[in-house]
Amino acid sequence: MILIMGASSGLGAALAKQYSEDQQQVFISGRNAQRLANTASTCDAKYLAGSKSVDLCNAQAISLLFDELPTVPSTIIFSAGSGCFGNLDTQQPEIISAVIDNNLLSACLFLREVVKRYQDLAINVVVVMSTAAQSAKAGESTYCAVKWGVKGLIESLRLELKAKPIRFSAVYPGGMDTDFWPSSGKTLDTSSFMSADEAARMLKGALIQTEHGCVADITINRR
Amino acid sequence: MILIMGASSGLGAALAKQYSEDQQQVFISGRNAQRLANTASTCDAKYLAGSKSVDLCNAQAISLLFDELPTVPSTIIFSAGSGCFGNLDTQQPEIISAVIDNNLLSACLFLREVVKRYQDLAINVVVVMSTAAQSAKAGESTYCAVKWGVKGLIESLRLELKAKPIRFSAVYPGGMDTDFWPSSGKTLDTSSFMSADEAARMLKGALIQTEHGCVADITINRR
Amino acid sequence: MILIMGASSGLGAALAKQYSEDQQQVFISGRNAQRLANTASTCDAKYLAGSKSVDLCNAQAISLLFDELPTVPSTIIFSAGSGCFGNLDTQQPEIISAVIDNNLLSACLFLREVVKRYQDLAINVVVVMSTAAQSAKAGESTYCAVKWGVKGLIESLRLELKAKPIRFSAVYPGGMDTDFWPSSGKTLDTSSFMSADEAARMLKGALIQTEHGCVADITINRR
Amino acid sequence: MILIMGASSGLGAALAKQYSEDQQQVFISGRNAQRLANTASTCDAKYLAGSKSVDLCNAQAISLLFDELPTVPSTIIFSAGSGCFGNLDTQQPEIISAVIDNNLLSACLFLREVVKRYQDLAINVVVVMSTAAQSAKAGESTYCAVKWGVKGLIESLRLELKAKPIRFSAVYPGGMDTDFWPSSGKTLDTSSFMSADEAARMLKGALIQTEHGCVADITINRR
Which stretches in chain D have pLDDT values below 50? Predict the structure, then answer.
């Protein structure tokens, strides 16, 4: 079973649909119950192991989610997050606080629970960030800040847990056309961007593992 | 006048003392009023332009601080922050939340106010991070996360504001012996570490500017 | 047709074999004619478009290779290189010079020719480096130097040619069990390493492109 | 005594002049004997410990240089190198080969000799690169390649020798107005750039060491 966090839209939703079509069991989660139900309706019901909305800034809620999983997942994909754009001096303090909570605090608390429960299992934890985690961008200072933060978290966890069987894959998509952009208040011509479906297809191809090897990092971009 | 944030201890306190001894006006700020008073008592009173404790997670309180400054600072040194150590699964959620607030949210809100007020002035904004902002470290995953986050913020602000006269210097100290370590719950033999006084002396040497040039980034480490 | 450089052994040889089995035309090249013939013998003859040994430090020889290609390649995979290990003070000057030639000069001259000929075509140029291009390693200083160098070259070419249709994918394998290790004079227990065949299988999965997107960077590591 | 390599022009020449004015003994070296003599003539003769031109691509010549030093240097500053600009497809193969030799092979061979002789001494080895070692730049692909290469070399040497008393400082200047630019065939308006004298003054300030600490990395840029 593949646990997909942030499945209510974008890449997470596309992965849920495609994995279920590939006849893989998926358990989906997201902030928004209504939108999560939409994703669930796109999945092949036979391969939808469950669905549960959760507040990723609440450690107890996260723990409950894991308590309710029908089985231990073989792969966990963390694709939650929200955007925040515009020059720093134009961003409201509450928005800054929210983007930190939704991207960095959520990743810390979620991965803390994953590590507590599963560090001794050979589970692959796939963390979806953004190319904003790899380079600085004007007009995206707080978004880059939280994504660089998640990258620092993952790289440190790899060192911390290198003697353990749990593994982390880092995914950096860029230039993806999802409703992430309108919901972030940024107007962009995204007609040449790749769709979430395209990104999901490439990501699935890249996440294939072999007996001794795995893909550790992958950057997917528009051509 | 040099505005020093995080002056209640460590490198910020050492810089306050040394700059006042160099007959430079300093205005000091920090979370803890009592410890800030201690720092003030080490400064040459003639060169202490003011002192005010402030909660850097409160945007209004930050704005008030700037309203009360006697003059526009020529240099702003941001050296606030707190540590958080141990493997991720051993950290309590409230501690993780606090380390994010004290290091990343505070930097975002503080620099937002600086940029709002001063982006059109040739002010040098010196942001003190840590070598934990430059590399991953086992047992420091959340601390690395917030410090990588601040680095992403600064690098993005540089791009965002490159047409403006305001400038950002990034400082990465490592292996410094301050009460940061005991207050972070980490037991270390710090006898070979450099003192905050030593780091302050090197930093002052490095922050000298010339007509056309300045030090953009500096990493200070124990030998 | 896929042009594979460095096909006489390791990942390049494994990719040649696998792509020909997938019924893709391959043209293979390498330094060593004898070993290149070995690789050719592992490929399905129907899908071997050609084979030619070439000295990648000779710009004219590189140009001749392209003159002799039966068609313009749709994908070019550059997997040439050689290792060099041991502490810097133990390496002989001629070995240092050779590792620079075989890894960095060769990449510069080869990519120069690719860019001269094909920058206006939507060709995907896949450059295989090593995790030694991403992090420093004790005992591998010159090898890291040349691999960091190739990474700097690729990242700059991406900026230089971003308005052009040509695209570059960067591949960073680590912990692969090939005869690279014995030929580099390094003794390692590589029993837990992934084989070149495994790495080739993952790489092929990751290099799938969609209409608007492609994999820009991929790090493959042993689990 | 401070040994300065690449002292025939630019930052190396400015450092030689300034350190001699500060009454520090300097020994200067460079490729070009005539230009090295020019630098020597700007130094206070009482503090010029010696001068010798050397081909840094010749390991024996490097060894001879060290044999002839009057004393073991306390600090070694490596500021040798040459530029190479323009899109990759416009660069001649011999120019590419020369830029690799002058920047990367020279650094490998020189630092190899330094490490062989001095790894057990508390010498500070200062390696001057460029901001081109830190980020990719269009039109500078081979120059970035060699500078990224030197950075990879230094970072690996630090790991390789961390138990030894020898220390490495990395210096990244950007936007400096020297005859480097015209000699590299690049036409730039450098009127807002910092002069080599300014950069030397900042670098001297930054290189001050304390009992337990030193500046490990420093980026100097125009304002």
Answer: none
With an 8 Å Cβ cutoff, are C105 and D88 in contact?
Answer: no
Taking 90 as the threshold, does the pLDDT of residue B206 lie above it?
Answer: no
Instruction: Count the neighbouring beta carbons within 10 Å of the beta carbon of residue B197.
Output: 17
pLDDT, tens digit, 9 for 90 and up, residues D197-207: 999 999 998 88
Chain A hits for B105, Cβ within 8 Å: 96-97, 100
Q: Which ipTM score applies to this complex?
A: 0.94
CB contact (8 A) between residue C192 and residue A212: yes
Cross-chain Cβ contact C108/D156 below 8 Å: no
Of D59, D88, D104, the CB nearest to C145: D104
Which of A206, A210, A212 minimises the CB distance to C215?
A: A206
Partner-chain contact B202 D209, CB within 8 Å: yes
What confidence tens digit (pLDDT) does each residue in A39-94 have?
999 999 999 999 999 999 999 999 999 999 999 999 999 999 998 889 999 999 99
If residue C38 lies in a helix (H) or strand (E), which one and from where to where? Answer: helix C33-42
Contacting chains of A (3 CB pairs or more, <8 Å) are B, C
Residues contacting D54, CB < 8 A, separation 6+: D29, D30, D31, D61, D62, D64, D65
For B138, the token pair is 């086992």
Q: What's the pTM value of the predicted model, to 2 decimals?
A: 0.94
Token duo for residue A149? 């933060």
> What does the pLDDT look like over D57-88, one tens digit per residue?
999 999 999 999 999 999 999 999 998 889 99
